[in-house]
């Protein structure tokens, strides 16, 4: 290609890089704002997105997930957009490195989740169960999310009712949540005998079934995100290398 054509190609890719990362930056800001909103006024969020509240996201605290993802997207969007605009090799390399780390982490999580399902369940249980024991019944947003999940999905805890043993809720009420015994509209206490006879499954099993049902959609979304990340890394490295020739 002639020098003019190379410069035109460089300019076009630079503009696309700026616009793409500007969209990422704005998306990150939106998610960050929604995360803060959920943390401050979780009940309003639940009222608006009630049906959505029974999804996989309810296993963890939605507000923190949105805040973390939003912050990461803000950083990536800023590095890519500002780095391309200022033609900064340092910022472009930082952008490449951050995206690469995220890509490797996503691949590692996918491998663990697909190949080592039992290990993934153990890790998730080790992280979520202590939080469930400590926060359920104390944190209003956390409790509302779990109550909505257990009621709509007809599940109890992450694994089963024993997740609430020695929990703050059990120590205060002397019983398990009513959903563990299908006692949603009853004043009868949910004890160990009733919970065992009810045999309400854990929410983790329900989530796995939901994931299996929508595996194709989830795989397509994951593949699309991975392709975008690879394209972003390739473009940033192209700009990084072309800056040496300018």
**What percent of residues adopt helix (DSSP H or I)?**
over 70%
Classification by helices and strands: mainly alpha
Number of strands: 0
Oligomeric organization of the protein chains: single chain
Shape: elongated
Question: What is the terminal separation in angstroms?
Answer: 15 Å
The proportion of strand residues reads under 5%
Mean of pLDDT: 80
CATH topology descriptor of one domain: Cd81 Antigen, Extracellular Domain, Chain: A
**What is the count of DSSP helices, taking H or I runs of 4+ residues?**
10
Largest sheet: none
Can you say what the CATH homologous superfamily of one domain is? Tetraspanin
- How would you spell out the order of helices and strands? HHHHHHHHHH
* Low-confidence spans: 51-57
Radius of gyration: 23 Å
């Amino acid at each position: 290609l002639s020098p003019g054509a190379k410069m035109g190609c460089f300019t076009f890719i630079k503009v696309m890089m700026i616009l793409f990362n500007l969209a990422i930056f704005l998306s990150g800001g939106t998610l960050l704002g929604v995360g803060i909103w959920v943390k401050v006024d979780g009940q309003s969020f639940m009222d608006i997105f009630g049906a959505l509240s029974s999804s996989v996201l309810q296993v963890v605290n939605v507000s923190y997930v949105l805040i973390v993802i939003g912050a990461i997207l803000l950083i990536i969007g800023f590095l890519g957009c500002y780095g391309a605009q200022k033609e900064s090799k340092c910022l472009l390399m930082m952008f490449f490195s951050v995206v690469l780390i995220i890509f490797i982490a996503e691949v590692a999580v996918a491998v663990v989740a697909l190949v080592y399902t039992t290990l993934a369940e153990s890790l998730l249980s080790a992280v979520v169960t202590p939080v469930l024991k400590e926060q359920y019944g104390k944190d209003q947003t956390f409790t509302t999310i779990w109550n909505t999940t257990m009621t709509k999905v007809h599940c109890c805890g992450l694994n089963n009712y024993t997740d609430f043993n020695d929990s703050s809720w059990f120590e205060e009420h002397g019983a398990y949540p009513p959903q563990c015994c299908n006692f949603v509209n009853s004043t009868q206490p949910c004890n160990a005998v009733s919970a065992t006879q009810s045999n309400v499954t854990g929410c983790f099993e329900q989530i796995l079934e939901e994931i299996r049902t929508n595996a194709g959609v989830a795989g397509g979304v994951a593949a699309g995100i991975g392709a975008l990340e690879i394209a972003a890394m390739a473009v940033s490295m192209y700009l990084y290398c072309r800056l040496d020739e300018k």
